[in-house]
Amino acid sequence: MSNTLLIVPHFWDPVCVPLGVSSLKSYAEREGHQVDLLDFNTNDQIFKLQNKYFLTVLKMFPYMERWNIFRNGTEMLSIHQLLYLNARSKPYYPGLVAEVMNMDARNHSKFCEQLDVSVFDAIFDELYSMVESVVNQEMQQKDYQFIGCYLNNSTWAGTTHCLKYAKNLNGKIKTIVGGPGPVMGITSSPHEVKDFMKKNDFIDHFVIGEGEKALVKILNNEISARIIDPVLLKPLLDDGNAFIDFKKAPTPDYGNLNTNKYLQLSVSSSRGCPFECSFCAETVFWDGFRSNTASSVYNQIDGLADKYNRSSFYICDSLSNHIITPLTQEIKDNNKPYTLDCYLRADKVCTQEKRTKLWREGGLFRARLGMESASQRILDDMVKNTTPENMEMSLYALSKHGILTSTLWIIAYPGETENEFKETLKFIKDSSGHIYQSDAWLFQYHPIGLSKSDKISSEKESKARFSDHINEILSVSPYHVDQDLSQEERFGRLEQFTCEMEGLGIPNPYSITDILKAEKRFSGLNSGKNSGWDPFSSMKNLVS
Prior knowledge:
CATH superfamily of the largest domain: tm_1862 like domain
Number of strands: 16
CATH architecture of the largest domain: Alpha-Beta Horseshoe
Structural class: alpha/beta
Distance between the termini: 38 Å
Largest sheet: 6 strands, parallel
Number of domains: 3
């Protein structure tokens, strides 16, 4: 038996209890190991520094407020930290920071005149002092043989530093990373993963894709490879299958995570996605799509609700269209007070009011709708398999029964014209009475990591986003689509979108106060019908 610490590093918004590490814990402990969990994002002193960073950015560069920088600046924050950790002694360090922060490519000299790097360094001094203190304290409490971290764009700096620091404290400890990795698509690029591991030589194992069986092999000391993918793993398994059987997998175990700090508990019904939207990495990362049954998912929800005395759940699927009808029926039939929040595709499934009424009666309070664009040509190019008409009907059918409609939009998709962008703005304006939230993010690109990277690459080509100095520090480079909109044009559209939403009064709430205001507005637009959910009741116990 081994002792293992799995960490969710800063910064990752605590909307729901981290599901990945919780699933790994329950699976590994069933195989005889001891796993502890640590989440930096429920450490108030650490998490508040994310807010402090962005408020400092806005004080220095007020125009970034029009980009919804708290959402669209998370990668900038992560790369800024990496420069601080690896290059702050370099004489050209301020110039590198300016290159990363000057996202819309304004005049470099003028940007540098406004930039005070020392203010951000002071924030990072405070941040990493606390991070090291927490890691040190955890490692003092138990003799861990393994330590693992979740790795994506926003946790990139935190992951690498936590593991490097742990290795310095105890050279014998084995370090592991898992998750989609930095720079959307890196795990589908063997040479980039190798470059990442060469740069971060303190990492012993990089698990690509689903992690349960790979983690157990590592903890059993049955695998020595630094990079572990399903192809490598299959011959080492008795059943030759690198993926778990959902129906036999244990219920996630949140362990010592502070569940009271999260808006909702977490559960999933699938991995991967049944669709292949051109801009998405889900199908590539998960190697297809697999789903569980509604009765099995309901039993997990019921068990977690009983164990943690909570009733609100976030379904962490790419899309829940395949299961939302039978799952809400299970909840209704069992007369449970459970509420659900999930991603849905705004296609024909969502357009029928009788169906959305049953969803609401079965606990669905929010539908997160990846709409992306209201231009039919762009939707077709994205392989969305829906229409603006279906999207409009979905918004009406959902909102009619008080289901909160969180709409998500992609700004500056390759080849999108100004008129096509305006089609999206007009659609939102016309449908504003049925929209709870409107959230936009700039298109992110990887030459092979997306479902349709090859098509985008062949039409537009790509280039590294940063200079050689920064790429060398990062070891892997974020990319741009080459023959397309300039950075100034991309951020100009983002600014236009944000200003348009402000004019329409459509919010993009994240704080509890803003959520309550947004719900009040939405209820007023829909004849007083509400979702039956609020963040305060969601975080309370079933029986107070």
